[in-house]
C-alpha cells in the first residue's frame, strides 16, 4: 500500500469528502431459510465508511459479503438494523445517482457492441456527452465495435465498470469484480479502478484475495460468519494475517502464566491435543516455551489467510 492510494490525487478532485459517512451499517442482520435450516448470512454487522475511502471487504466463501452489499445497494431488506448511503436510504441514494455497482454476473446484452451498450445506458441516464470519457476511464475505448459476447470476462467487467461510472456516483460498489479473470485482466481492471479512485470517489469492493485488497484498498474489513472479524489499514491486517502460530503440547494450567509473561498472547485454538498460540514475536514465544515451561513438541508455522480467518473468528 503506497501513500498515493490514501489521498485523492491533487488534480481535479471531483468527489470532495463531506462529514456524512458514505456508508453507515448499523446492527445489520439478515438470515435465509435453506433446506429447513436458518443461515445467518449477516449477523449484527456495524460498519462506517468515510467518503473518499477505498475499502476492501475480504472474506472466504459464505462470509456474508454479497448479502451485505445487497443490503447496502437496497437490493435486499435487512431483517433488522439499518443501512444508509450518504445519510439516505440506499434506494434513494441509488435513485439520486450517488451509488452504482459492478456485480459479479449478468447485466449485459450479448448482441450489443460495447459502444452500443454504453450509449444506450448513457441515454437512460441523460449523459450522452460523457460516453468517450467513461470508456477511456474504464480502458475500453479500443473495444467499441466488439460484440459483448466476444469480450473476455475481464473486458465485460470493464464495460460494467464504465456503465457504473455513467451516473458519476459518489460511491461505487464492486462485488468480486475480478472473479475468474487471468492475471493480466485483473491488472488492467485494477489500473482503471485505481486511476478513477484517485480522483476521490469512495470505493467498496468485495474480494477473496488478500493481495488484491492489499494493493488497492486503504482499509480492509475482514468478514467471517456474517461479522466483521478485523478492520484496519492494509498494513495492520496484513500483519495479523501473516503472523506465525506457535503450537505445542502444553497443559492448560500453564496458560495463565504464559499470559502474564506475554500480555499480547492470543490463544488461537485447541486441536488434536495441541494448543495454537499467536504472538507478534513468535521466536521469543517458542524460546520461552522450550526453556521455561514443560511444553513439548513445539512447532512454528506460517499462517495462511484461511488460518487467519479461523483464528480471527475464534477470537470474536
Ligand atoms: N438467497 C439465499 N438463500 C439461502 N442462503 C443464502 C442466500 N444468499 C446467501 N445465502 C447464504 O448466506 C451465507 C452468506 O452468503 P454470501 O453470498 O453473502 O457470502 P459471500 O461472502 O459473498 O460469499 P462468496 O464469496 O462465496 O460470494 C452463505 O452461507 C450463503 O449460502
TrEMBL record:
<feature type="region of interest" description="Disordered">
    <location>
        <begin position="1"/>
        <end position="21"/>
    </location>
</feature>
<dbReference type="GO" id="GO:0005524">
    <property type="term" value="F:ATP binding"/>
</dbReference>
<dbReference type="InterPro" id="IPR027417">
    <property type="entry name" value="P-loop_NTPase"/>
</dbReference>
<dbReference type="InterPro" id="IPR017871">
    <property type="entry name" value="ABC_transporter-like_CS"/>
</dbReference>
<feature type="domain" description="ABC transporter">
    <location>
        <begin position="23"/>
        <end position="250"/>
    </location>
</feature>
<protein>
    <submittedName>
        <fullName>ABC transporter ATP-binding protein</fullName>
    </submittedName>
</protein>
<keyword id="KW-0067">ATP-binding</keyword>
<dbReference type="InterPro" id="IPR050763">
    <property type="entry name" value="ABC_transporter_ATP-binding"/>
</dbReference>
<dbReference type="GO" id="GO:0016887">
    <property type="term" value="F:ATP hydrolysis activity"/>
</dbReference>
<dbReference type="InterPro" id="IPR003593">
    <property type="entry name" value="AAA+_ATPase"/>
</dbReference>
<dbReference type="InterPro" id="IPR003439">
    <property type="entry name" value="ABC_transporter-like_ATP-bd"/>
</dbReference>
<dbReference type="GO" id="GO:0005886">
    <property type="term" value="C:plasma membrane"/>
</dbReference>
<feature type="compositionally biased region" description="Low complexity">
    <location>
        <begin position="7"/>
        <end position="21"/>
    </location>
</feature>
<keyword id="KW-0046">Antibiotic resistance</keyword>
<dbReference type="Pfam" id="PF00005">
    <property type="entry name" value="ABC_tran"/>
</dbReference>
<dbReference type="GO" id="GO:0046677">
    <property type="term" value="P:response to antibiotic"/>
</dbReference>
<keyword id="KW-0547">Nucleotide-binding</keyword>
<keyword id="KW-0813">Transport</keyword>
Amino acid at each position: 500500500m503506497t501513500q498515493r492510494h490514501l489521498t485523492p490525487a491533487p488534480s481535479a478532485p471531483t468527489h470532495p469528502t463531506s462529514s456524512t459517512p458514505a456508508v453507515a451499517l448499523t446492527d445489520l442482520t439478515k438470515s435465509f431459510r435453506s433446506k429447513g435450516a436458518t443461515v445467518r448470512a449477516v449477523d449484527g454487522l456495524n460498519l462506517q465508511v468515510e467518503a473518499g475511502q477505498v475499502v476492501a471487504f475480504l472474506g472466504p466463501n459464505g462470509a456474508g459479503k454479497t448479502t451485505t452489499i445487497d443490503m447496502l445497494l437496497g437490493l435486499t431488506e435487512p431483517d433488522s438494523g439499518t443501512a444508509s448511503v450518504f445519510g439516505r436510504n440506499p434506494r434513494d441514494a441509488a435513485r439520486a445517482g450517488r451509488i452504482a455497482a459492478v456485480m459479479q454476473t449478468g447485466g449485459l446484452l450479448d448482441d450489443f457492441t460495447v459502444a452500443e451498450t454504453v450509449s444506450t445506458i448513457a441515454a437512460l441516464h441523460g449523459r450522452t456527452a460523457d460516453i468517450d470519457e467513461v470508456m477511456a476511464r474504464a480502458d475500453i475505448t479500443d473495444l467499441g465495435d466488439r460484440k459483448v459476447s466476444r469480450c473476455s470476462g475481464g473486458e465485460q467487467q470493464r464495460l460494467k465498470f464504465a456503465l457504473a461510472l455513467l451516473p458519476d456516483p459518489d460511491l461505487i460498489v464492486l462485488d468480486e469484480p475480478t472473479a475468474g479473470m487471468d492475471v493480466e485482466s485483473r491488472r488492467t481492471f485494477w489500473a482503471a479502478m485505481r486511476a478513477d479512485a484517485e480522483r476521490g470517489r469512495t470505493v467498496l469492493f468485495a474480494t477473496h484475495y488478500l493481495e488484491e485488497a492489499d494493493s488497492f484498498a486503504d482499509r480492509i474489513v475482514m468478514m467471517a460468519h456474517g461479522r466483521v472479524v478485523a478492520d484496519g489499514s492494509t498494513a495492520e491486517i496484513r500483519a495479523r494475517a501473516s503472523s506465525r502460530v506457535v503450537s505445542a503440547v502444553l497443559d492448560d494450567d500453564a496458560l495463565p502464566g504464559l499470559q502474564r509473561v506475554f500480555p499480547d498472547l492470543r490463544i488461537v485454538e485447541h486441536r488434536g491435543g495441541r494448543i495454537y498460540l499467536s504472538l507478534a514475536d513468535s521466536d521469543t514465544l517458542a524460546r520461552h516455551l522450550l526453556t521455561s515451561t514443560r511444553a513439548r513438541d513445539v512447532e512454528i508455522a506460517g499462517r495462511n489467510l484461511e488460518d487467519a480467518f479461523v483464528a480471527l473468528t475464534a477470537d470474536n
